[in-house]
Amino acid sequence: MEAPLESEAAAVASAGADGLVGGEFKASEEAIEFLSSIEPAELQRCVFSDSLVTVSEGGQELGKFALTVEFARRIQRPCLLLHGHSQGAIDNNPCGTAVTAYLSSDLEVLEQDHHEYLKLEGHTLDRRCHMVRRDEEMVIDKVTTTGEVRGKNCVSYHLSAVRGLVTEGSNLLLMRLMALRKKVPENMTFISLDQELHIIHTTYTEVGPTQLEVGGETVEVFGIERRVDSVKDVSATWHCYFLPDGHLASRGQVGSPVIMRLLQLPSQLENDPLKDKPVFEKRPLVWEEDMQMHSKFLDRKEELKADYASYMRQHPELRVLLADFLHFLLLRKPDDIFRFAREYFLPFASRRPPETSLKTSPL
Q1: Ramachandran region of residue 95, left (φ > 0), alpha (ψ -120 to 50) or beta?
Q2: Coiled coil located at which positions (predicted)?
């Protein structure tokens, strides 16, 4: 059984053993044209949430999946913020994934954080991959921890080598756009990354309309097939089906015994105030691991540093004053530093008792 939001590239055997690099894999012109054709009005229609459950062949609920898309800003640049997370179990072993991605209007990755874990008896498998655009490069850091063994892989690609890159985050939004258009153009070949962070091909094709049962109703859905190629092994394929309004109705890997399904139509969920709402467990906030909050912290940090540096350049006497104070402090080595500081700075006050000046104190 696969993890509920298992990385789609995880099912692909490593394509990096032969030293293949980005130059040998390129997105098709049709794929690049599709990304450049995205209109702001289409993105507006993509800003909503999805919530599905993962079930086994026998109908047993194994986990949950949630996806949110909203408008945001990153380093003063308008963008889309996508967050997907899931939790479940593989053979009764807890597992989960989380993807947070900042995407431009043409689905270019500005920054993405992808975390996967599987808790086995005695140890945990943990994978974290962070990618960020820096100047003209895409920098990718991946850390894999298996028990006590920790491995790290770092690569960077020039932006020209990753045109048409589809990641775990942008893939979900890309298919939502195709579903809203109700058409997957011919030759939709993009590029993706395998487990060794080498570039490979990923292709989208239209499955065609079909019908699914959702919440006791039979609805028509639009199907999209995604195939992730491999150099040495067989390709991995996923089938996703969408409602006419773009909501994800079903998602599953071909050959897997589990599938993600929508249990209730979105309109029913919105119009039924008595319907039990899902309860999510409260988790402690670790802001260092929240990419949005950490990004805001770094932006504010750099802003303050620049502001302070500017002020000090405009007032060079500040450095002289502080250096003089520290010089006196280290010479005297007083027990009461606060009292010493008060007496030292009193002469700079507009009104002060002259007898308390430090100049009149004995050496």
Answers
A1: beta
A2: none
